[in-house]
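= Paired protein data =
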Amino acid sequence: MPESDNRAPAAEALGPRSRILDNLPKRAIGIDVGGTGIKGGIVNLRKGKLVGDRFRVPTPKPATPEAVAGVIGTILEELLSRAKAPAEDQLAVGVTFPAIVIDNVVLSAANIDDSWIECDTSELLADLPGRISTLNDADAAGLAEVRYGAGAGRTDTVMTVTLGTGVGTALVHDGVLVPNSELGHLEFEGVVAETKVSAAARERADQPWPEYGDVLRRYLSHVERIQPVGQFIIGGGVSKRSDDFLPYVTGLRAEVVPATLVNNAGIVGAALYAAEQAAAAEANS
């Protein structure tokens, strides 16, 4: 692969039975860019768990690429100062964005500043140490849940649905990520789905949990007709209250379960993705 080619290695090389996984470093770093905060951590890739505490910095206002890149640099510097940080000669850093990301280029801005559209993150973050890979935030969470969490060991199709300010979706088949599904932007009952299904929408409407559970049931039923899956994993911060609304999500063909990694899923998945990308690039060089 030419050095100037920033495209991600082929996804088919990165399934759970790939020999690439045997060559991953023990630790990598994940950084999760959100609307209110940017948080990062060192991840043990054997266990899918954070090593030490997360480090969080408020998202700058406005959240332009240059401002966010500065915060990412600050977080990375802090994490690399720790005793258990990965060695820089094998450092892989994954960074998530709430946007479509293809070949490390941001192509949408539903929940971030419009100035991110067409931003090449390889160029934006080129001065930072390590091999940096970027991806959609829901994709990172979904990859983490399938490798380490609620979907571990499954070989069918799993969709993680993250419920927060918006609705993110991540599609994983037999352990391999199919990126940028973005099914939170489907038309659903006459509106864009996330305006009705997100955790923020529930809060705006002061909606009782049983009613919210029924809205989620209808949405997942709608999604299931378009993209059948074996399991829905419900993530995002609201998944901590899953006992309040998941009992009302019934009648689906797919199993519906709460996420287990919750707020750390994005960090863990970003670190895993970056380490896989680095290993695949090395194998293909």
